[in-house]
Design a protein that fits this description.
The complex is a heterodimer of chains A (114) and B (114). Chain A has 114 residues and is mainly β. Chain A has strands at residues 5-7, 10-13, 19-24, 31-38, 42-50, 53-56, 65-71, 74-79, 88-95, 104-105, 109-113. In chain A, the strands form two sheets. In chain A, strands 2, 4, 5, 6, 9, 10 and 11 form a seven-stranded mixed beta sheet that branches. In chain A, strands 1-3-8-7 form a four-stranded antiparallel beta sheet, with no helix packed on it. In chain B, strands 2, 5, 6, 10, 11 and 12 form a six-stranded mixed beta sheet that branches. A four-stranded antiparallel beta sheet of chain B has the order 3-9-8-7, with no helix packed on it. Chain B has a two-stranded antiparallel ribbon with strand order 1-4. In chain B, β10 (87-94) and β11 (103-104) form a beta hairpin. Chain B has strands at residues 4-5, 10-14, 19-21, 24-25, 32-38, 45-50, 56-58, 64-68, 73-78, 87-94, 103-104, 108-113. The chains are: A mainly beta (114), B mainly beta (114). The interface between A and B is medium-sized, with 25 and 23 residues.
């Protein structure tokens, strides 16, 4: 099993540019989570999906952030326009919807907004 | 709402010392419990988990954790740490029926000095 796949692994962009982060969950997993990790705020849940449907997006910082899951094997997190304070490591995680809660994390995307 | 408390955010110890990290949660019902480890520059990886049964759980790399229901605790231990155990450790809690969402503690940054 390839595990959770994220791309790109590193992204450097300039303020105001659009950024798209991608995630492929583990095959068969039907829950997907997007997290952001910074030194100041630690690990934050941004949004999660069950069966491709967004369940809770209350962690999304503001309207500049949006996430989609068009099918069971792909999700995107978009930031438009990006700002320097968005610099962070963004993790995607997936799990079975079995009520146990065990999540498997991807390698993360390190985003730097200049 | 669930909350997870981890104390002593920064821990510094020498190789061969014993390690114990505390984790307390606020949810009163049946829970599933996890410890994740994040090595420097890497993603979160599962260290061990508790769903039911023997409250003393053995994990990878010599770690173990004990679930004490009456104390709402799930403390992590390792009798003798190595330099390679330098990492951040996160406790997480899931309540069955909670859509597989995990509530994470703020983490313990552990530094092992050779």
């Amino acid at each position: 099993d390839a595990g959770v796949i994220q791309s790109p692994r590193h992204e450097v962009t300039e303020m105001g540019q659009e950024v798209t982060l991608r995630c492929k969950p583990i095959s068969g997993h039907n829950s997907l989570f997007w997290y952001r990790q910074t030194m100041m705020r630690g690990l934050e849940l941004l949004i999660y999906f069950n069966n491709n449907v967004p369940i809770d997006d209350s962690g999304m910082p503001e309207d500049r952030f949006s996430a989609k899951m068009p099918n069971a094997s792909f999700s995107t997190l978009k930031i438009q326009p990006s700002e320097p304070r968005d610099s962070a490591v963004y993790f995607c995680a997936s799990s079975l919807q079995d009520g146990r809660g065990e999540q498997f994390f991807g390698p993360g995307t390190r985003l730097t907004v200049l | 709402a669930q909350s997870v408390s981890q104390h002593n955010h920064h821990v510094i110890l020498s190789e061969a010392a014993s390690l114990e990290l505390g984790c307390n949660y606020s949810y009163g019902g049946t829970v599933n419990l996890f410890w994740y480890v994040q090595y420097p520059g890497q993603h979160l990886q599962l260290l061990l988990k508790y769903f039911s049964g023997d409250p003393l759980v053995k994990g990878i790399k010599g770690f173990e954790a004990e679930f004490i229901k009456s104390k709402f605790s799930f403390n992590l231990r390792k009798p003798s740490v190595q330099w390679s155990d330098t990492a951040e450790y996160f406790c997480a809690v899931n309540a069955p029926g909670g859509n597989n969402r995990l509530a994470f503690g703020k983490g313990n940054q552990v530094v092992v000095i050779p």
